Structure to design on (119 residues):
């Protein structure tokens, strides 16, 4: 079963990061490894046992705390059936009176007169 293991690990330098990545990447069943230096987290996705991940990190000389263990988040949905809606190339505004700038509703085939007759 694929799961996501998030550990809180002190990743203060590049040497520490390489050491952790080397230790964890050699495990069987690791699909993806992410290290967030700002948050100090190590995220491992795959079928590897979380206990083995923790043991490997600790053998690398780093203290590891479990933040969460569970299923990975679902990938974002992409509907192939729905094509992207096209935005109109130009915006059409209804005709307006040239003198008062009010919108004039005009029946098809009818030309409005130049004088305003909106009530």
């Amino acid at each position: 079963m694929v799961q996501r293991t998030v550990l809180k690990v002190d990743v203060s330098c590049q040497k520490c990061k390489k050491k952790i990545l080397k230790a964890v990447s050699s495990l069987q069943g690791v699909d993806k490894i992410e290290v967030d230096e700002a948050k100090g987290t190590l995220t491992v996705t795959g079928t590897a046992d979380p206990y083995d991940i923790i043991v490997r990190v600790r053998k690398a000389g780093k203290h590891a705390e479990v933040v969460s263990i569970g299923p990975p988040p679902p990938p974002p949905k992409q509907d192939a059936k729905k094509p992207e809606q096209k935005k109109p190339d130009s915006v059409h505004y209804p005709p307006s009176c040239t003198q008062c700038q009010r919108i004039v509703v005009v029946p098809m085939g009818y030309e409005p007169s130049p004088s305003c007759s909106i009530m």
In short: The chain has a mean pLDDT of 77. The first strand starts at residue 3 and ends at 9. The helical segments are 14-25, 50-59. Strands lie at 3-9, 30-36, 41-46, 64-70.
